[in-house]
Specification:
alpha+beta; Nucleotidyltransferase, domain 5; 5 domains; five-stranded mixed beta sheet; 18 helices; elongated
Length: 510
């Protein structure tokens, strides 16, 4: 570089070329050549003097004289970050900084923000963890609580969204559960394991009461007894995350954000759904994302990566599902031959009235025992003040009275409705809850579609010799209740039935 400077200066001193010509020959700015010409003319430097000058002297000759930069006082950046996190904004922290050091020695706002940004980037670095296939399953609940309804009820109810993820393949599993209690938490975990088709070595739950009972200052947390039994059943270890450390389960944290965002959007476009209907919506979301190709995964989706590299590392599931049972309770059988459990009532054979029954409750079943023998098993009801009754538990006169209810209601309409009702009561239902739900569904048809259309639909069902309310419902939904067959099928005589009403049958003396 100095040889070029010396050659250019010699050309300026020994030739008559203009600054523009020299700049064009040397491939440099003509302003620079002109500045150098002015310097040698000012200093009256000759070609002989130029040959005697060292490179350092040449450099000092042509270098621009710049003022030494004024030193600006930097603040304590950690203190500035603490001020930001306390609620102040950057304008306020900069104003406080200027007030401390004075305007002449302080940084401009733009420079202050640039230095602060660089300091913030050095804080909280991310540690990349290489997860092993089949090693862990992380679980968490979403903050968003989807609102739906229980089967057979129109009352809105908030449910919980349970999400699980395998950190290696990021495969997502999700379920709608009723609460974060131990039973529902185990249901969500068990559904996730069956979705994956195997069990990992470690469960990583959040710090909720359904998973841990206590976390001592030193040592591992103490697991909830039934949750520990669940982990043992599948041959897993449970390692809850640290309190307020979401990074311990980052895979499921991202999955929760994804699933709850899409679920919120899809539920906003639909009416109030039942629990199983909401679960189908969640299943669609999960399948869609598990089969979508991921970026930076060599063309793999979550599902394909799981099938190719992780499924083989999961342990096989035991043949029997884990059944969570609540502590057994003792209850006296009432005069209505029902046993109360958590504001719901379950029937036992009427001959056992006055005796004591032991209630064994699992997540889905209620078993009632008398003298150590099982006398009734019911599907568990979760709506309040629900009566679950098997018809065989009733006295004969009570069974007949329950059947009469629908027939008496049908007499308000034409004879075709009554014919369908008389056939309906001959069909046995498993429980009193199912019978009540079906009667409510039938009685709701004229409210929805109108009395006249309902009677026409029942007339059409009779003309087709189809004595089912489903036929009437389908005709109403398709708008064809007024169409009749060209050649009506003669109605078959009703089958003999026990629906004979009288004083003797109802246990009363005439």
């Amino acid at each position: 570089m100095q040889c070029n400077v010396r050659a250019i200066l010699r050309q300026i001193l020994t030739t008559d070329h203009s600054s523009n010509v020299i700049a064009a020959q040397r491939g440099m700015s003509h302003n620079t050549v002109r500045r150098w010409r002015n310097i040698v003319e000012e200093k009256s430097i000759t070609a002989q003097q130029l040959d005697l000058m060292t490179d350092q002297q040449l450099d000092a000759l042509i270098r621009r004289r710049r003022c030494a930069p004024q030193t600006r006082i930097s603040p304590d950046w950690d203190e500035e970050v603490r001020a930001l996190r306390s609620g102040l904004n950057r304008l306020e922290t900069h104003a406080n900084y200027v007030a401390r050091v004075g305007e002449k020695l302080s940084m401009a706002y733009r420079t202050y923000c640039q230095h602060l940004h660089r300091h913030l980037q050095t804080l909280d670095p991310i540690l990349r963890i290489d997860h092993l296939p089949g090693h862990a399953m992380q679980t968490d609940y979403a903050g968003f609580m989807p609102v739906g309804r229980e089967s057979g009820s129109n009352e809105p109810k908030a449910f919980k969204l349970f999400v699980a993820a395998l950190p290696f393949s990021r495969l997502i599993a999700a379920a709608i559960v009723r609460s974060e209690t131990v039973g529902d938490h185990i249901i969500g975990n068990q559904l996730a394991l069956h979705y994956y088709g195997g069990a990992p070595a470690i469960l990583v739950p959040d710090n909720l009461k359904a998973a841990i009972v206590a976390r001592p200052k030193y040592g591992p947390p103490r697991l909830q007894e039934q949750y520990q039994a669940f982990a043992d059943h599948f041959g897993m270890s449970a390692l809850p995350t640290r309190p307020r450390r979401p990074q311990d389960k980052s895979a499921v944290e991202n999955s929760v954000k994804l699933v709850q965002r899409l679920l919120r959007i899809r539920l906003s476009q639909r009416p109030l759904l039942e629990l199983h209907e909401m679960q189908r919506v969640v299943d669609d979301i999960v399948e869609e994302w598990n089969n979508r190709r991921m970026k930076r995964a060599n063309g793999h989706s979550r599902r394909s990566l799981f099938e190719a590299e992780e499924r083989m590392h999961l342990k096989p599931l035991p043949a029997q599902k884990f059944e969570l049972r609540e502590p057994a309770l003792s209850r006296k059988i009432g005069k209505d031959y029902h046993v109360e459990f958590k504001s719901n009532y379950y029937s036992v054979p009427h001959r056992l009235i006055g005796q004591t029954a032991i209630v064994r409750a699992s997540a889905n079943l209620i078993e009632l025992l008398v003298d150590g023998l099982s006398v009734a098993v019911h599907a568990r009801a979760y709506t309040q003040n629900c009566r679950v009754t098997e018809d065989k538990h009733r006295p004969p006169n009570h069974s007949a009275a329950c059947q009469v209810d629908l027939v008496e209601w049908a007499k308000r309409f034409n004879l075709d409705v009554e014919k369908l009702a008389e056939v309906e009561v001959t069909h046995a239902t498993v429980t009193d809850l199912q019978r009540r739900q079906r009667i409510a569904w039938i009685q709701n048809l004229p409210r929805i579609h109108g009395r006249q259309r309902f009677e026409q639909a029942c007339r059409r069902a009779v003309s087709f010799n189809d004595f089912r309310f489903e036929h009437a419902r389908n005709a109403l939904e398709k708008g064809i209740e007024a169409s009749m067959p060209e050649h009506p099928t003669p109605a078959a005589p009703l089958k003999p039935q026990r629906n004979v009403r009288g004083a003797t049958y109802f246990g009363k003396k005439g």
